[in-house]
Design a protein that fits this description.
Length: 464
């Protein structure tokens, strides 16, 4: 396989001899615009199994099973084998081909009442070789090798995408479970408040309105539970599908709950060039550009003469006993040099088309690089802003819990009406749900940051 270092990330030149198209410069920023303030990892290898940094055994098991059993991963591995075979087939054109054959037969003729039978035996060893004078076949091999590299990177891209998808779905599931726990605790609190309102009504300290309001608030909270349970069941089934199991097939993996996974976004100080070297989609675009450039050079080599050498060694005899007699051996050797003289512009059109494909591949590569930079910057911003929002909501939740406790105590002694209690309960539920959502958003942002930085695959798993 062509090493990825052959792709110049900075100002890729793309080998444009023979064409009028010239690649545009590809300048890269020296640092990220969004400062992170988090520690950096020691090397790119730490990105290979980024999900292990969440220290969640269930997540580790889910991701490992997804990478082994998901149909997309299995299909991508088969595609790598396909393109490895295609590269090997292209390599075979650089070597002579040899065919061997043995034949025998008899012919009978009837003439003027006489029957004649003739037998013949022959063997042949034929060899042919197209001498690659101007590199047309070598360039075709380079193109096939680049496409194999692209297939390998596509496998890495599938692994990175599946790891992120599994982690995000797992985070969503744990967030819903945490929301359900908060909602059930809130229901329990409203049950206590509803009982207190009933006692106050029975004691003549409050009217039936307060009791009805408390009951309505309780039933409203209870009504949200089935919807959350539905979402949790759907999340479990989605995770089962990702790991190649039937619905319910991994429910025993998911118990007990460990809460929403957390970790710090520890990669943001990496420079852009590291990101581009690591991301599979950038590497795919680079290999496709190398393949397009090699195909264009192969088309250009078609303008030059080709030399083909062929020869044969064989025997021919009418007697089986003389089949291996050296005197029956025949041999010939032939060399031919051919060059295109007139093809009505076919070769020229092929070169022009190949050059246009190379230009398209370069623009795709350039767009992929820009998209990679933008996605990483956006992930950095999401991590930082979610972290800031989380700190604010944690303070708000502390105050809301204190307000809820104080309101219920004051309601018990008759200092405030039920509407104040209901308002504090609603505020607490909203803030706690926002707090959980933000925790999940922060963790999801970290996952997307790992994905944007090209994590989720290992170079040691690459095969040429």
């Amino acid at each position: 396989m062509i090493p990825f270092t052959a792709i110049a990330v900075f100002g890729l030149s793309a080998c444009t001899s023979g064409t009028s198209w010239k690649p545009a410069p590809l300048p890269l920023p020296e640092a990220w615009r969004e400062p992170g303030g988090f520690p950096a990892l020691a090397s790119g290898d730490d990105l290979a199994r980024w999900w292990s940094r969440f220290d969640d055994p269930v997540l580790n098991r889910l991701v490992a099973a997804t990478l082994r059993h998901h149909p997309d991963a299995v299909s991508a591995e088969a595609r790598v084998r396909e393109f490895r075979a295609r590269r090997d087939a292209a390599r075979s054109t650089l070597f002579p081909s040899v065919d061997a054959g043995i034949s025998g037969g008899s012919a009978r003729t009837d003439r003027d009442g006489a029957r004649n039978t003739a037998t013949s035996y022959a063997s042949a060893l034929d060899a042919s070789w197209e001498v690659d004078l101007f590199g047309r076949n070598r360039q075709a091999v380079q193109a096939a090798a680049a496409r194999l590299g692209s297939a390998n990177e596509a496998l890495h891209a599938v692994h990175a995408s599946l790891a992120a998808e599994t982690a995000l779905e797992y985070i969503r599931l744990r967030a819903n479970e945490a929301r359900l726990d908060v909602l059930r605790r809130n229901v329990k609190t409203r049950e206590e408040t509803a009982r207190l309102a009933g006692w106050r009504r029975d004691a003549g300290e409050a009217d039936a309105l307060e009791s009805s309001q408390a009951s309505a608030s309780l039933e409203s909270a209870r009504a949200a539970i089935p919807l959350l349970e539905q979402e949790i069941a759907g999340g479990r089934n989605t995770l089962a599908r990702l790991v190649g199991r039937n619905p319910g097939g991994i429910d025993n993996w998911l118990e007990p709950t460990c809460g929403i996974p957390t970790t710090s976004p520890a990669l943001v100080s990496r420079i852009p060039a590291d990101t581009l070297r690591q991301r599979p989609d950038v590497r795919i675009a680079g290999y496709e550009l190398l393949a397009a450039a090699a195909s264009r050079r192969s088309a250009e080599a078609s303008r030059f003469p080709s030399l083909r050498i062929s020869g044969s060694l064989g025997t021919a005899t009418p007697k089986a006993a003389d089949f291996l007699d050296p005197r029956t051996t025949t041999a010939n050797l032939l060399a031919g040099l051919t060059a295109p003289v007139f093809d009505a512009g076919r070769i020229r059109a092929d070169i022009e088309a190949s050059g246009a494909l190379e230009e398209q591949a370069y623009e795709t590569y350039r767009d992929t690089v820009l998209r990679a930079l933008a996605e990483t910057e956006n992930a950095l911003i999401a991590c930082r802003r979610s972290n800031e929002r989380l700190g604010i909501l944690e303070q708000a939740a502390t105050h809301a819990r204190e307000a809820d406790l104080l309101a219920r105590r004051r309601y018990e002694v008759g200092e405030i009406d039920f509407l104040s209690v209901l308002d504090t309960q609603r505020t607490l539920l909203i803030i706690e749900e926002s707090l959980l959502a933000t925790r999940a958003d922060l963790t999801s942002s970290v996952v997307r940051l790992y994905q944007a930085l090209g994590g989720g695959w290992s170079r040691t798993a690459s095969n040429s």
